[in-house]
Design a protein that fits this description.
The chain is mainly beta and 136 residues long. The chain has a single domain, classed as Chondroitinase Ac, Chain A, domain 3. The strands form two sheets. The protein has a seven-stranded antiparallel sheet, with no helix packed on it.
């Protein structure tokens, strides 16, 4: 899988793809309209961050490339790739239980904090694209 050269793009299936973990310097793209939302992405080798309508959506440390990101009221799904294992933070409903799946493996239930953030670790080194699914 390749990085997202244009930093953020809409896919034909209605999902979005974003991030470029190969960049040595920070890059950002703002005011990207998608499905009624205004998106902003910041990315490079150390961090990738996505906001929608000035609200937190996704962050990874170190930087990652995310493809086919889809979010609705009940779930978030995407594929993620990077050079190193990553800590990924997703913005969801606060104080809510979610079931997390990584590459189809049930990682169990996790609860968001008062800010609505869910933090997971994903092994990416040499793994290629890893699928993540988070279900309410």
């Amino acid at each position: 899988m390749a990085v997202v050269e244009q930093l953020l793009r809409a896919e034909p299936d209605g999902t979005i793809s974003f991030g470029n973990y190969e960049l040595k310097e920070k890059a950002k793209l703002e005011n990207f309209e998608h499905d009624g939302d205004i998106l902003k992405v910041k990315t490079f080798k150390d961090i990738t961050k996505l906001e929608a309508n000035e609200m937190f959506v996704y962050e990874s440390v170190p930087g990652t490339t995310v493809t086919n990101f889809r979010e609705d009221e009940k779930s978030v799904e995407f594929k993620v790739e990077g050079n190193e294992d990553a800590q990924i933070t997703i913005g969801l409903e606060e104080n809510t239980d979610y079931r997390v799946f990584v590459n189809g493996t049930d990682m169990g239930d996790m609860k968001t904090n008062l800010g609505g953030k869910l933090i997971i670790s994903v092994e990416l080194s040499g793994a290629g694209a890893v699928s993540v699914r988070i279900v309410k």
